[in-house]
Amino acid sequence: MSSDRPFEIQRIDHVVLRVQDLPRAVAFYRDVLGCTVARERPSLGMVHLHAGASMIDLIGIDGKLGKPGGAAAGAEGRNLEHVCLRVEPFDVEQLRAHLQTHGVALSGKPESHFGAEGDGVSVYLRDPDGNGVELKGPASDCGCS
């Protein structure tokens, strides 16, 4: 720990995504990716979802918290590049089959990417608002790209 900083970052606590259709986004993160609803805050237009040890907060663009952000994410602009979710077990074919049952396609092919645990294979997809989601397996020495 740096002597001039009285803290160390432990992990990402949560990310907040602005979404066009809050119920649709909740259904995607809950039903497709397996997040669980932790708390709903209708007065703010917000739903908090457990994503493992972290959280994904969804706010509707028409709600109290979402309106100040301006236009919704779309083909010409997004809320973020992507959020990476570490998943286990990581079986690309099982992931692909599960996503297909929900009408979700993978973007590109599985490749090795660097993350918090080191290099490991991951796949990418888009949520209903076009935000990128990376599903990442454990670190490995596969030597893929």
Automatic annotation (TrEMBL):
It holds the Pfam family Glyoxalase. Residues 11-138 form the VOC domain. This is VOC family protein.
